[in-house]
Design brief:
Elements (H helix, E strand, L loop, with lengths): L4 E8 L1 H5 L6 H12 L1 E9 L3 H14 L2 E5 L10 H9 L3 E3 L1 H13 L6 H4 L3 E3 L3 E3 L8 E4 L2 E4 L3 H11 L10 E7 L3 H14 L4 E9 L2 E10 L2 H17 L6
Parallel strand pairs: 1-2, 1-3, 3-8
Antiparallel strand pairs: 4-5, 6-7, 7-8, 9-11, 10-11
């Protein structure tokens, strides 16, 4: 059995929690992680509060193979992710020479003042490595197993593209979808027994409603075809044993 690689995500920003900004990064990360065989196990959304960010980073980096953060690395006073991650790792947050020089030259070529606010985007924990940003240049960074990236979706996606080749990948989950014409109230009991009998699988039930009727999509996931086939066969047999849907 291949090593199981896990990940967690921390979405940072008052604007997400207030509803002013709608997150588009969780789904993208989930899609990418699934595609490369990494299990995204947990997502936390935290406010622009240093203690909360530190607590989330320390909790998740100890539990999962990788942690990804989005948001809070811009030029404004409430962009405190770099400071918070530095505190979590117990190292200073300081100007990175390469990032500073790169941003200074970038703004000079555009004839734009390299203000104190813009300089903030060159700060990162001591010892961190850059995550390149091909969209707006200001880098993210990697320290330990924590990858710190921008919250703007186009920039996050571009940064993630640069991170993916550096990650260990695991064995991808195989899946089988089974149509069930019954609602969850009918199948909940027997489906739970099938899950207990097949602990190496993940069996999900997703209720649907169409044309005045409830039905359920059942999805079985496993890391080997043999395990998947055995559990899926029992789920199909369960559905068939329930007989036709009563009007």
């Amino acid at each position: 059995m291949a090593e199981i690689i896990t990940a967690a995500m921390i979405v940072i920003g008052d604007e997400i929690l207030s509803g002013r900004t709608k997150d588009r990064n969780i789904g993208h990360l989930a899609d990418v992680m699934s595609a490369i065989g990494i299990d995204l196990k947990e997502v936390r959304i935290v406010a622009d509060e240093e203690d909360d960010i530190v607590a989330a980073v320390n909790a998740l980096r100890a539990r999962y193979t990788y942690v990804f953060t989005t948001g809070g690395i811009g030029p404004t006073h409430d962009d405190i992710t770099a400071d918070s991650v530095s505190k979590a790792f117990g190292v200073p947050c300081e100007y990175d020479d390469r990032a500073y020089a790169m941003l200074e030259a970038h703004y000079a070529t555009r004839g734009i003042e390299f203000t104190e606010a813009r300089k903030r985007m060159a700060r990162m924990p001591r010892g961190a490595d850059h995550i390149d940003n091909p969209v707006s240049l200001a880098p993210g960074f990697r320290i330990g197993n924590v990858h710190v990236m921008a919250g703007v979706p186009t920039i996050f996606q571009a940064m993630l593209d640069n991170v993916v080749p550096t990650l260990k990948t695991g064995q991808k989950l195989l899946s089988a979808a089974i149509h069930c014409p019954f609602g969850e109230g009918v199948i909940g009991g027997p489906l739970g027994e099938i899950q207990k009998a097949h602990p190496d699988t993940i069996i999900g039930s997703y209720p649907k409603y169409l044309d005045g009727a409830f039905w359920t999509e059942l999805v079985v996931r496993a890391r080997t075809q043999e395990t998947l086939d055995a559990a899926a066969a029992e789920v199909r047999a369960m559905v068939e044993a329930l007989g036709p849907v009563k009007a």
